[in-house]
Each structure stands twice: as C-alpha cells, then as structure tokens.
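// run 5 | inverse folding | seed 20
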C-alpha cells in the first residue's frame, strides 16, 4: 500500500513490516524478480536432472 500522504510503500508480511520510499521499493522489486528467475531456473534444472535419471520406457 502506498501512503497517499507521504508516498511511502507499506509492505506488511506476517512477521515483518517494512516502510520503503518508492526508489527503495523499486529496488526491492527488482531483487525479488531476480530471485524468482533464479528459483525458476534451478527448478527447471532439477526437473531436467530427474528426467535424465529416471529410466525411460519406449514402446
């Protein structure tokens, strides 16, 4: 939520509350996007590794 009075982004998580100015929030957003890309690449790699290790049956 962006405070209409001060322009600060308020991000509340279950155990964490952050107050960020717009530039800091933009940087946090970039970091989260980069982390998501890294996670997706790792998941694809793990999935591909499992496919190569699993015996394949051809008919």
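// decoded
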């Amino acid at each position: 939520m962006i405070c209409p009075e001060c322009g600060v982004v308020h991000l509340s998580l279950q155990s964490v509350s952050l107050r960020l100015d717009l530039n800091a929030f933009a940087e946090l957003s970039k970091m989260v996007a980069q982390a998501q890309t890294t996670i997706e690449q790792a998941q694809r790699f793990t999935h591909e590794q499992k496919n190569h290790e699993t015996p394949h049956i051809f008919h």
